[in-house]
Amino acid sequence: MKQSTYECLVVGVDGSDASLTALRWSATQARLLRTHVVAVHVWLPTGTYRAPYASPAELPSPEQDRRRAA
Fold first, then answer.
1. Using CA atoms, how far apart are residues 4 and 13, in angstroms rounded to an integer?
2. Which backbone phi and psi does 43 adopt, to 5 degrees?
3. Which segments of the chain does DSSP mark as H helices, in order?
4. Each residue of 1-35: pLDDT tens digit?
């Protein structure tokens, strides 16, 4: 069996019909080229950034808040 000159085929997948078609096409091409497919799926987080949890003991007391605000 001849070794492929291609290390791999990379295809982006987002769940759309077009991306699934591209994934199927790349799988066929990978077989013909004797290489493998790397499917990449990325996303952009939605919503707000969530800060790390702070325990109540780490939070300033109401008195400390008043002094800081003064």
1. 24
2. -150, 160
3. 17-33, 62-69
4. 566 677 999 999 998 999 999 999 999 999 999 99
**DSSP 8-class letter at 4:** P
Please say whether the beta carbons of 30 and 11 come within 8 A: no
Average pLDDT over every residue of 31-49: 85
CA pair distance 10, 47, nearest whole angstrom: 29
Q: How many CA atoms lie within 13 A of 27 on its CB side?
A: 8
* Lookup: tokens for 62: 């109401």
Query: For the chain, first and last CA: distance in Å?
Result: 79
Residue among 39, 31, 35, 32 nearest 10 (CA): 39
| Single-letter amino acid code for the residue at 51 | A
Domain boundaries, the chain: 1-42
